[in-house]
Amino acid sequence: MSSLTCGYLHNLTWTLSNFCCNKNPAPLLDAVEQILPTLVQLLHRDDPEVLADTCWAISYLTDDPNARIDMVMKTGVVPQLVKLLGASELPTVTPALRAIGNIVTGTDEQTPVVINAGALAVFPNLLTNPKTNIQKEATWTISNITAGRQDQIQQVVTHRSVPFPCQCSL
C-alpha cells in the first residue's frame, strides 16, 4: 500500500472513530448502519493504527443502548474482536477489550456470542497482563459475564477464565 493510501486510510479510520465517539448527540442509527460495513472491513486490516482506531470506534458504538450493541453484533465482528484480544499491540488490545466488555454489559442473549467466540480462553492472559489497565478492563468484563445467567457463570468457571487470586499480579 502506498504511503498516500496508508495515510488516507489512517485519517479515514480516525475520522470514523471520532464520529462514533460523539455522544451529544449520538450518531443517528441510520448513519451507524451505513458505516458498520466499512468498520467490519477495517477490522481485518494488518495496520495496527487502523485496527486500534477501528476497535475504538466499535467500543464507542457498543457503549450505548442494547439496540446499538445488536447492530454491531449483527455484523459478525465479535470473533475478530476476540482474536484481537490476543494481539501483541497494546493499542489494539485495549479498545478490543473495551468493545467486548461493552457487549457483555448488554442482554443475556448478547453475552453468549462473546463466550461462543472463544473469549473466555483469552482471559487468563488478560487478567495477568503486566499492564494494570488491561487487568482492570478484563476483570470488569468477567464481572459482567458472571452477572448473567447461571450457565454463563458456569462457563467462566469451566474455562478457568479467572486465575486463583494468588496467581494474579496484584
Topology:
Elements: H1 3-21, H2 29-42, H3 48-61, H4 66-73, H5 78-84, H6 90-103, H7 111-116, H8 123-127, H9 132-145, H10 150-158
Describe the structure in your own words:
- It is a single chain.
- 36% of the residues are buried.
- The chain starts with a helix and ends in a 12-residue tail after the last helix.
- The chain has 170 residues and is mostly helical.
- The longest helix has 19 residues, at 3-21.
- It has 10 helices and no strands.
Count all strands and give the number: 0
- Which percent band covers the strand fraction? under 5%
The averaged pLDDT comes out at 91
**Termini separation:** 43 Å
Q: Provide the low-confidence segments as ranges.
A: none
- Biggest pleated sheet: none
How large is the count of helical segments? 10
**SSE series:** HHHHHHHHHH
User: How would you describe the shape?
Assistant: globular
Write down the Rg: 16 Å
Oligomeric category: single chain
Which secondary-structure class do the elements indicate?
A: mainly alpha
Helix content: 55-70%
